[in-house]
Each structure stands twice: as structure tokens, then as C-alpha cells.
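Researcher: Quick one. two chains, 932 residues in total.
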Amino acid sequence: MQTLIQSVLTLQNGSLELVDVLLMGDRIHTVAPANSLPVAPCLIDGTDKLLLPGFVNGHTHSSQVWQRGLIPQLPLELWLANVFDSTPRQLDQFYWGAVSTAVDTLLSGGTCVMDHAYVLPHQEMETVDALVRGYKAVGIRAVIAPLIQDLPFASGFPRGCLLPQAASPQSAAELLAMMEAIVAEFHDPNQGIYIGVGPTGFHRCSDELLAGCGKLSDRLNLCYHTHLLETRAQQRLAQERYGISAVQHLENLGCLTPRTSVAHGVWIDDADIELLARTESTLVHNPVSNLRLGSGLAPVLKGLQAGLNVSFGCDGAASNDAQHLLEAIKLGTILHTVTDQDYEHWLTPEQAVQMAAMGGAKGVNLGDRTGTITPGMDADLVLYNLNHPSMLPRNNPLQLLILGRPTDVVEAAWVQGRQLVDQGRVLTVDTAALHHMLRHQPQAVHPAEPPHHPVEPHYREVMLNR
Amino acid sequence: MQTLIQSVLTLQNGSLELVDVLLMGDRIHTVAPANSLPVAPCLIDGTDKLLLPGFVNGHTHSSQVWQRGLIPQLPLELWLANVFDSTPRQLDQFYWGAVSTAVDTLLSGGTCVMDHAYVLPHQEMETVDALVRGYKAVGIRAVIAPLIQDLPFASGFPRGCLLPQAASPQSAAELLAMMEAIVAEFHDPNQGIYIGVGPTGFHRCSDELLAGCGKLSDRLNLCYHTHLLETRAQQRLAQERYGISAVQHLENLGCLTPRTSVAHGVWIDDADIELLARTESTLVHNPVSNLRLGSGLAPVLKGLQAGLNVSFGCDGAASNDAQHLLEAIKLGTILHTVTDQDYEHWLTPEQAVQMAAMGGAKGVNLGDRTGTITPGMDADLVLYNLNHPSMLPRNNPLQLLILGRPTDVVEAAWVQGRQLVDQGRVLTVDTAALHHMLRHQPQAVHPAEPPHHPVEPHYREVMLNR
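Model:
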């Protein structure tokens, strides 16, 4: 199968150029000057279009699609109590959650998603199976890193928290054995499905689990993905528990490698940045969620200046009521001006594209396969329609894509050479059925007592000194 | 003409309720429990819809539509040099700029726009005429406040700026006489067209002009609209020029009244907030622009806590490459969590609606006419389609509208009882012609030397101490 995208605007070495791009099988075969390549069996007219490498949604939780718009604005620790309370319990919700996440990602510029996935207790294999079926149905590239933890919820608060103890979590050994089984069953790079190891975060995980995940990542070449210093409470907890930075602690446990991506990092300091950069780890920046939960401003500009790889994520729909990758990228691009007066440090649209594409690919351990429009790379591509009113006037299409509010602009998308979107419609799944499922979800029943109330007095006392 | 919107979800006293809303002529006649009113000649089924008061875009510059996506990320003072250089010069661009601004506003939840309008030198009347024709063609409510100044560009920099002097600006007396003529010709409240007095900002205006505008506002009951302390440079300039806060200076000149709205106020301090609140002035918050230009974080939560009326604006398309009111509202709602750890102070979707509707109406001196769904108020209403995928699942429509990324959700809109949007399409103007104009704008010619280069050394030295 050969596809020629003829005379299309794209970003080459930092500037916009008109080129021909020939796809052959699952790869990009040739990139040549516009109108220089012979016509191929499948010909796509690139006039008034912009072709970019597919972006990576570097951090989300697919099952939260069902909790979109549900949970009020609260800081992470209190918000979490509400998330647990209203989390989906049916396997088909996980399937449709993956489908929805894949569709939203494709239609907002992404071709790959890192799903830091909640999995149903005692139904872990079945949950991952449902997610894999969902992602395969759509055809998007997906890394599924099941959320695992061996410490109770209350351990995530500084100065402990006197909560009625929920069911005892599984042990680190059990969880690691489970992860091996999940990898054996579902890790399938040829089909674009990858399993990652995803310890929830140091705040919910023993050293045995954190380090065991690191060894698994080393041995099986898996992405290591974890929440890291998302909130001030977590920063305080790390000092309380380890006496050193959580980043240094992870490094001591052997968890920081080029396969590692950490979500948020809002509260990392200069030494942490240095350490993450030196180990070639990736920081996944989730600006919408960080504001929605009041987590703070991640030190993205400092990170980039220190050579740290930074990518973008939406985070789950319970903390970012949209799953629109271009929205997260826009906010992540303009937000950091408030942290640095020198405008020469501000992110440009070109940098944002690089971070979202190659930065994202590196963050999911796929930097050798996707992230640029270069011969030999997998054909993970997105074609944008520049005639949509949201992309007018035509002053600078790239700037409008990143700094505007593009709407319905994804005309086509390919993953591993397979066309998944055409004329703005996902070809592989019945999106009407998805929307029917979402529309007819039973109305959420709000509990008489909001689930965060039991932990609230402790939180306010510890974090707000009331 | 009677229109009944039957059994529609709306926000009444802070919570969502199903109601019937009867419009008669240009007013809201009755709001009653769902399905309690007799059917009217024009019947609109409110099933799966949300009805809200129309929002106000409290600050924009319509002609910048042509500069969307054009100007790179720079701080205001340098960005301005680029704006001047590439500003439209043809009257029909002003007409279409107004049309585009009106359409974008209507399709993103707004029914009223404050256009702090650039007007062509020596063609001021003609420019305002073009804007008025544009807004009347669409039928949106518009306040047009021509940008006037009697000090040169260079006076906007702290410690002066050695620039070749451009043509001498008009005198305060000439400008005030011109404003009287513009009001006499174009101020037309019955048609929803208002003229405001819009001195650019203290940094470009003499005391004579600032105070003269205040007197005009008093005498003719006009909105007084001005840029205020948008940047750190302006704050420094105020200290340099007056030795007191620019807000206190405006108060001393008699410019702060309930008819006054100030754009940005990023650098106002606690005393300024107090003064603005006491004079019942309005702060128009432009979060996207403030981040895009690196201006900073306006003290919105502090302002609200002090009783200050705060509304939202998009600002012009050269500093916010989208003119999507819901986007500005979302960002303005979630951004301020980083300034206050106590989540009880964070903005809720219900507050955001109140700020965008009644807050906005007060800010343009129309709080007695629009901003709530109450009998007797003008029928300025927006009906949202809750079945669009971006509004699913149906957990909390208001939260998804404000915190999600609603796309193509404006189903219908009315201004002064006249329906301007139906089934997501603007009824009054040919939007295809608008998009044709925008699409076929000649490609911007980038000057050999970027226009901000001559002022850059001064800016860097003064503001960045290099």
C-alpha cells in the first residue's frame, strides 16, 4: 500500500515547507520537494492542509471519561476521594472509555496515548483486556500502564490520616507477578499496543514496588510511568517519609531511565530537574489538570533549559473536563510566561510541536519509531484542514493551530500507515454508538455526604493550617 | 412576537432547574416551572438544552481579526510595535472585522461585545461607521469605544524611549470633540449599538484627555473603558509619572464610576482593588491574552473577595489567536487556583456564569437590561445543545460548558428578543462570504526587520536589566 500526500505544508527543521510525503506500508518512505514524486495509488491532495507528526497524549486515565464534568474543583487529595467513589465498575465502561479516549485523541492531533489506567480490583486482566480491545478497535497507538499501589489511600496525606481502612491492597510481590502476566498476555508492539509499568506514585507505593517496577521496565524494555510531586502535599510527604527529594529517592531505587516518564512534576526543584534531565527521563506536563486541581505551575521552562525532555498530557477527564490534546498544548505553551519575564525563553509554536510529537514519543519509549516526519519512521501522521474558519486568516497556520482554538480541523490521521480518520471522521469505530453510550449513562447519584468530607478536616489542618 | 422555550434547563439562583421561558417582543416576559405555560406561536423544545443569559465579551479589538496568528509571542510593549505595523488600513476590513467578532462571540456564548476599537487616523467617523454597519448586520449588541490617545507610542515605556517620532497625535480637545461627534452620529441604544469613551490607557493619554473622557461619560451616560496596568512596565511607568498608583490617579481625575470598566488590571494592588470596588468599577479579565503576552496573573480572586465586579474578555485576536468566549471563561475560571491554596476561594462554574453574564453586563453599563433570565430583562439568551459529544456524559452540563471544551454547542441565540442563531448557524449574515474574505486575505508580508527591533534594546535594558 502506497499513499502519496502531495504538496503539503509541513514543519521541516523548524520552518514550514511544502513537500511530498510518500507512505509505504507502515512507514514514511520519502519526503521530497513538493510535486517532485510520481503519483501513488492512493493520492491525497495537500492543498490548504498542514501535515504534522502525530502528537502523544502523555498522561491520561481513560476510564475517567465517565466522570467528565462530575467532580467539583478540589485539590487532588480531596478530589481523589470523589474519583474513587464514582469510578466505573463495569468492564464495558472500560472498553468504551478507551474508545472515547482514542477518538478524542485522534480528533485533537494525537496518534498515541499513555493510559495510566485504573483497573478493577480482582478483575485486572479483564480490565486490561477491555482497554486493549477498545484501543485496537480504534487502531490508535496506546501504552497501557495499569495503576498499581500497595499502600492505602490515607498514606498519600502528609502526617497520616485517620481513615477507616479500606480493603488491604495487594502486596508488591503479587502486583509485580500480575504485571508480568499482563505483559505476557497483552504487550503487542506490532499491533501498536504496549504495556507499561505504572506505579501510582511514591505516595501510594512501597520501595519494593517502585524498585520492582524499575526492574521489570529494565528487563522487558517497558515504559515506566508514575505520578510524581503533583502537589505540595506530596512534596511535604516525601520530606516526611524519605528526608530527601522524591526524585532522588526514585533514582536511588533505580527507577529513572530514558524509559521513564513522570506525570506532573509541579513541585520538582532545580536539583530534581537536573536529575531527571541527566537520567533522560521525561516530564509529562498536564497544564489543564494542574490548574483545575490547583496543583500549581510545573517548572517547564527551567526544565527545558536544563535539557529535560518535556511532553504534554491531558490527564484524566475527571480533572480535565476535556480530552483535547491541542487545548492542553496551547495552555502548556502560553502558561509559563508568568514564570519567566525574558520572552526569549517563552515557548514558540514550533517548540510546542516538537514537545508534543518527539517529546511525547520519547516519553513513551517510542522515540525511535514516531515523532518526526522522516523516512524510516512509522507513519503516525495528522493532516489538518486549513480552510476551517478557526484556521483563518492564513497568517501562520502553525501558530493558529497551537495558539488559536482549532475546531474540527483534523482532516485525516494515520497510525503505523493505517488511515484511521478521513474527512474528520474516525473510520474504524462507530462513534454514534459511543455517543449513545455516553448520552445514556445513568445520571450520577450524588452521595448524601460528599466523599471527601471525612478527609477534609485533616487536609485543611495539615495543608492550610486551619 | 412571542416565543416559548419549553422545559429547558437553566440556572436559577445558583442551581440548575427546568423551566419555561416566554419571550415577548424584545423582553423576557415570564419564567415559570417547566410545562406550566400555554404554547406560544413560536415554540422551542428545550429538551436536552441549556439556556443561559448571553455572556459579554468585555474587551476586544475587532480589527485584529486580520492579525490572528500573525504576531509572535512578545511582551505587550514589543508586540504593540508589530500590531501597529500590520494593522488593517481598508474600511471594509473594519466592517468584516466587526462581523467576524460578532459571529465568533455569538457562537461561543456571547450576545454583547465591547469593541475597544482601533480607528483609522483621519477616517475616524468612517471607521466607526464600518464597525456599526458590521455589528448591525449581525444584530449583536455592541459597545464601540474608539481607542484614542494624545501621547506618542514611546510614552508607553518607562524611562522614555528614543524613537523617531511618528506623526503627532491629535490633541485632547480635538479627540474629545471627535468623540462627541461620534456619539451624536452612532450611539443608538434602541438598536443595541452604544458608543463608549475609550482612552487607550493612562500610558498614552494626558490627564486632560483622561478627565475629559470622564466628563463625557458622566454627561452622556457612556461606558468609560480603558486599558489599566496590563504590564509591569505600565506599573513602573505610573510610579515614574505620577508617584502614585495609576488607579488612584484615575480616581483623582474623576474617571472611576459604575460606568467604568478597566481591561486587564494585572498589576493592581490591594489598595487599587479596594478603590475599584468602592467606585463600583469593573475589572475585565483577559486570561488568554495575559498569558500570551506574558503580562501575568490578574488578582481576580482577591478582587472578587473585595466585592469588585469582574467580567471576562477575549482581548483582540492579535494577542489571543482565538476569539472564543468560553475558552477565555474556562481559563479565567481555573487559572487562579495557583494564587490561592484555599479551594473554597476557587471559582465555580456557577460563579463564572454570573461573572460572564451579569458581571459583563455591568461592565458595559447595561446591568439593568441584560445579564439574568428574569422577567422584564431584555431577551439576550443563548441556548446550548447538550447532545453534542463535547457535552457528554450528562453529569453536570454547566460544569462541562465552563470547564470542558465545548465545540459547536451554541444551538440558538437571541439579542433583544431577535433570534440571531438557529441550529448553530448565524441567520443574519453570510458567514461563507466572511470566511471567503478571511481565506483570501493576501499573505502577510513580514518586514525585513521585525517592527519591534528598534525599541527592543530599550525594553530589555529597562525591564530585564540587560
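Chain B touches chain A through 60 residues (CB under 8 Å).
Researcher: Thanks, that's what I needed.
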